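Supplementary Text 2. Reproducibility record for the structural model of the 359-residue chain.

All settings were left at their defaults, and a single model was retained for analysis rather than an ensemble. We include the record here because the model underlies the residue-level annotations in Supplementary Table 4.
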Amino acid sequence: MIELPALGWQSIVIFVVFALSLLIATYCTYAERVIAAFLQDRVGPDRAGPYGLLQPLADAVKMFTKEEFFPGGANKVLFVVGPCLAMITALMSSAVIPFGNTMSFGNNLFFLQGIEVNIGMLWIFGVVSLGVYGVMIGGWASNNKFSLLGAVRAASQNISYELAMGMSLIAVLMISGTLSLREITLQQSVAGEWQVWNIVKQPLGFIIFLVCAFAETNRTPFDLPECETELVGGYHTEYSSMKLGLYLFSEYVNIFVVSAVMSVLYFGGFNFPFQYELRDWFINSQGWELASAQNLITLLGTVGLFLKIFAFIFFFMWIRWTLPRFRYDQLMRLGWTILIPLAVFNIVLTGALILFGVI
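Retained model, structure tokens:
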């Protein structure tokens, strides 16, 4: 066994997390087309490779080889900075998500998590709030009225729905008493009891968070910043080549991240029912060592977490091809007059339930 310092193992984990985020975002473009074809009863991509599996690679080659274009009067520096900032912030938000429990190799014990900080939820909210700057900068630097209108819509939409999203998470913090995503995940782990998942304790908070997640990722029915019927293409109207690709991929990375966050906060993260009983069975009945059994349970938990994430990603895509787009006044009314009051009510209700010892 190769012995590496803890920093070396953690660096490998960080690299794998970023690589997985990019890979999943790339193949989300393929999944979007396949799901759309299935829901619309037509044939999806089937030319590039068997079953069209090489279509994302063909798209990437196309993006890299297309002509670079800068619109007249555009700020060239900010025109490039915008999509780069959107992609960087999307990837940074995945760094604190716990994708698994502890793993041991030789004398090394480490987490399947990029970085473990006790303010993981604040990290995600802080980084995600910076992501809107990439959209704003790109829309403004394009020197195009449609791009600017799309950027303004994105900024006002994010501000509106971040409030409700943040308040929906306050109730989770009241229950868990910590901002660490890893600690919140471990608190949902009791031997044989999936009922301790926060979705059971916070159904209203989860619904509010889910709706806000659609708005934060600019997905249908909240895709007003990219509304092609009104704004041509929204904030990335003037973009081409890989700069456009960064905007498109960052959206799918954000979908992956928000799906992982929902799985961690409300559906137990890497926990699954009877995990400890299964571990003890391997130890007592099969004669496995504790470290080997724990490694297996960790890997199974990681697989379970990714299944939850993929289920949410499918739900995002299903909604896109099912519901029509909101009008902008309807979008604002939903955020300010419905979701925020519901989030406040959920906080008060959670406090009352904690006070009376119900949860």
